[in-house]
Amino acid sequence: MNINAASLYEELFSLYGNTQWWPGETDDEIILGAILTQNTSWSNVEKSLSRIRNEGLMKLEMLADIDKSHLIELIHSSGFYNQKARTIIELSKMIVSNYGGIDAMKNESNEKLEAFIKPISGIGQETMDAILCYALDKPVFVVDKYTLRLMDRLGVKNVSNIRKAKEYVLASIGEDLGKLKNLHGLIVNFSKDYCRSKPACNDCPLRNKCDFASGKQD
Ligand code: SF4
């Protein structure tokens, strides 16, 4: 089945509406969440974010100067705390010293921002895209493992990696920031409810549009 991204968006939007993705009260908190969520569940991230918030440290200027062992204590629930603490401190320092804060970054081009963020240890493509899209309001689609699995199962042609998945979304959704933000959240919700590692195809609203469910895939 070759459903385009705009049609997929409408299908999922009819199920979940506006997901308000990414969860986070401020741009600084979104950046932290994007780093902390690597290889762990969001419930673990929430515990870390809440501890940072309760200590009044949810500002990059404060995190740039925080004692690393203290940050490790605060983010312990998110796992990989040593690496994540290093990444949070390094990124915070770089943003504060080069831009003064997030707002000034929003005027930069995507290319410049990618070149700035990419070299930071502990930030891969998905994390960088989440920062660009949700904290910096750049029209970038965040591709995660759920996205690639869903596209593959639906039978979307030629979507086998992050670059191709982005091209697929760009082709029919373009640079509509609101839809790009929401589509990622819609796919996460749908993948947790239906298209899990063991998919619930019998109950799935997309089963009539899906190659996997119609037996065209193993
Ligand atoms: S029918 Fe099954 S494999 Fe296809 S999208 Fe739904 S849950 Fe996923």
Question: How would you describe what is shown here?
Answer:
With 218 residues, this protein is mainly alpha-helical. Helices cover 59% and strands 0% of the residues. The protein contains twelve helices and no strands. It has helices at 5-16, 27-36, 42-54, 60-64, 68-74, 81-99, 102-105, 110-117, 125-135, 145-154, 162-173, 177-193. The model has no long low-confidence stretch (mean pLDDT 95). It binds iron/sulfur cluster (SF4).
Keywords:
218 residues, Endonuclease III, domain 1, mainly alpha, 2 domains, binds iron/sulfur cluster, 59% helix, 12 helices, Endonuclease Iii, domain 2
Blueprint of the fold:
Layout: H1 5-16, H2 27-36, H3 42-54, H4 60-64, H5 68-74, H6 81-99, H7 102-105, H8 110-117, H9 125-135, H10 145-154, H11 162-173, H12 177-193
Helix pairs in contact: 1-12, 2-3, 2-9, 5-6
The structure holds iron/sulfur cluster (SF4).
Share of helix among residues?
55-70%
Q: What does the overall shape look like?
A: globular
Structural class: mainly alpha
| Rg over alpha carbons | 18 Å
> How many distinct beta strands?
0
User: How far apart, in Å, are the first and last alpha carbons?
Assistant: 15 Å
CATH architecture of the largest domain: Orthogonal Bundle
